[in-house]
Amino acid sequence: MLKNIVNGIKAYFGTFKLIAKLGLWKYFAIPILISVVTGLIFVALTYFFSDNLGQLIAKVWPWEWGAETFATISTYIGGLVILVLGLILYKHIVMALSAPFMSPVSEKVEAHLLGETGHKHRNTSFGQQLSRGIRINMRNLIREVLFMIPLLVLSFIPVIGIVGTVLIFLIQAYYVGFGNMDYTMERHFNYKESIQFVRKHRGTAIGNGIVFVLMLFIPIIGFIITLPISVVAASTETVKILDDKKLIANADPSENPKKIKE
């Protein structure tokens, strides 16, 4: 898995050059707008509601001594909780709504890497791509939140909290990488087959997601460039895997395997 994580990260090298070469920036206008608006909304929510949540958390401290200190700490805890949950929601909202715009990007990357092939892709409409994006990201959102709740509690426990924080980061990376890879898989697999594929290549998803999550912490610019370059990186690596596994047919239509190989 470690090798696949590294490959997922290395796929980011050269993405800006590839985007410029294929003229892909025009496809990112609406997704970037969605990303910036959604990101600013969640930053505002973190700023305005961290105090309120902190006050609720502070009420669990029943003693007079240390109450003021605990209240201050609770404000930061409240901000952290809102930030983490907001980041989870942000990722899935942006990826779901951007699906119809990212699929053509992934298709152009595939055509650039492989040229003409005899592969018969799944033909889906704008609405079907949006519906699938929402379905995939709703599934991932629910699973991610279920993992996050106990890990957030563990993250506040000394020593153990370090492990909890690392796991929170890796889980977020996995599910965001999943979403980015699905823009390519949407043309090749149905819903269940895509889930099966990512499970077998979870390292690639984690590697892609690690860079995605880290870039989001770059003020303003993170909301602008993260989605475009992460989608191109995920598309590049996913197409390579599909080609290596012979899951994309060549000019001979007889070479078109129907199931995912190990």
UniProtKB/TrEMBL annotation:
Pfam families named in the record: EI24
Transmembrane parts of this sequence: 27-49, 69-90, 145-175, 210-236
Superkingdom: Bacteria
Name of the protein described by the UniProt record: EI24 domain-containing protein
UniProt keyword Amino-acid biosynthesis present: yes
Keywords: Amino-acid biosynthesis, Cell inner membrane, Cell membrane, Membrane, Sulfate transport, Transmembrane, Transmembrane helix, Transport
Compartment(s) of residence: Membrane
Organism of provenance: Aquimarina gracilis
This protein's record includes keyword NAD: no
InterPro entries, per database record: CysZ-like, CysZ/EI24
Membrane topology (UniProt): Multi-pass membrane protein
